[in-house]
Write a structure and sequence with these properties.
This protein has 92 residues and is mainly β. The chain is built from one helix and four strands; from the N terminus they run αββββ. It starts with a helix and ends in an 8-residue tail after the last strand.
Length: 92
């Protein structure tokens, strides 16, 4: 899926959505998710992400970013309860 298709998909979602799945989209970076202020679950596994944005929605409770190429993680949201980041290249 191209970046424009991902953005079209995100644009079609309501601001108050609770879960977004961006898995298997061949993403090298996550798009801006800041308008999703109630987002609780984000799936972004099986992409080509090398990093995550410095700012993820503070409401995020579950982040599944397994099967990427992440080498480090940013400061994570305060309410995060579940972090799945298996099969990455984390060094710190």
């Amino acid at each position: 899926m191209s970046n424009s298709n991902v953005q079209t998909y995100l644009n079609s979602l309501p601001d108050n959505i609770l879960e977004i799945d961006l898995s298997q989209k061949e993403l090298t970076e996550l798009p801006d998710l800041s308008r999703f202020t109630q987002l609780q679950i984000l799936h972004c596994l099986d992409n080509r992400l090398t990093s995550l944005p410095d700012t993820l929605p503070n409401s995020l409770q579950t982040l599944n970013c397994g099967h990427n190429q992440l080498t480090s993680l940013p400061i994570l949201p305060n309410y995060l309860q579940i972090l799945l980041c298996y099969n990455n290249k984390l060094t710190r």
